[in-house]
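Example 3.
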Amino acid sequence: MYAFELVRPATLDEAVTALGAEEAQALGGGQTLIPTLKQRLAAPAKLVCLSGLAELKGVCIADDGAVCVGGATPHAVVAAEAAAHYPALAALAGNIGDPAVRNRGTIGGSLANNDPSACYPAAALGSGATIRTVNRDIAADDFFQGMFTTALEDGEIITEVRFPVPERAAYQKFEQPASRFALVGVFVAKYDDGVRVAVTGASEGGVFRWAEAEAALSGDFSAGAIAGLSLDADMMIGDLHGSPEYRAHLVKVLTGRAVTAAG
Amino acid sequence: MTRVTMTVNGKAVSGEVEGRTLLSQFLREGLGLTGTHIGCDTSQCGACVVHVNGQDVKSCTTFALECEGAEVRTIEGMANPDGSLSTIQQAFQDHHGLQCGFCTPGMVMTASALLAKNPTPSEAEIRHYLEGNICRCTGYHNIVKAILAASGQDVSHLGHGDAVAAE
């Protein structure tokens, strides 16, 4: 790692001020950022540690029933505390990485990084979540802007993620066994006004909604409803773990499984 | 350099560290606690697992400064006060839960974290919880058996080093 200064602000205001410095970067749980620093793929002058900010941690329920997760909440806490309110979200959080990673990695860090194979972007987009930052609220549909790219400005901290709770939902992940990232992951959620289908791991453009499947499932919420659909492999990721065609196929299979699992 | 202070295995310790100093590095090089092993240094293998405020974490993927004021427990803090092996450690010895021993500190720390949350885990739960700990010698069977035994469950049906039922 290149040398950097690590600061531990005591309040959110201090964190915002610290992030205003040249070449400063937020440090969530560090489960992606620290390996990235070790590979010298990032070289911040200053890391601003958010894990000590109690105001960014925990799960609560809003008046409208939405599940609100603080930006610095580790995956293990979401898995435990959201289980009674939004089981599909809790199950997704409880299957990210491994137990030690889940004790450190945070929802804000995952969404801000927007790894094309990460699980949380699928939950946020599939739930039509709102990403709340120190400055504003951003709809998930506007937040994800391509591989490792989001609507966040430099130094903008995710303070909370609000998930409207669907009638039914499920996440299915086809795991890449070495990294435990999703080779393909599909989050399906059925709301009053329609079904949302969000796909991670598959596209060169990062997490995306599969509009045709959403339309079909909004009419008939069963795995059979998407039997006649197919995805274009053109924009799919191709690597040693799977070809674009294989990933396109997996998207459909996992969407069907997610619908069945959602019941 | 910044001064960091924490409690390690019940003792208050402090030292001068850089921002980039990893917890694993501080424990091994700063405190001489070399029982915490660095296998891969890329968060994959789990040989470096320690407890920070009761949570199992990979010390190679945590900065020392993030642990300011924290309670840290390493493999050196696992034995009983009289120096005898803890239940989990003894079970690893009794059931041959190690061969070369390199992964063992991380396995014991992970097993201890699991049993604190789930005192009588099933075999499948143990295997799932060990997902972030890699052993290249044992094929995991005797590690799983040792953890089952440490939780007080009967392992007599599992035989001596025989493969237990696959998940």
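Chain A is about 30% helix and 20% strand. Chain A touches chain B through 28 residues (CB under 8 Å).
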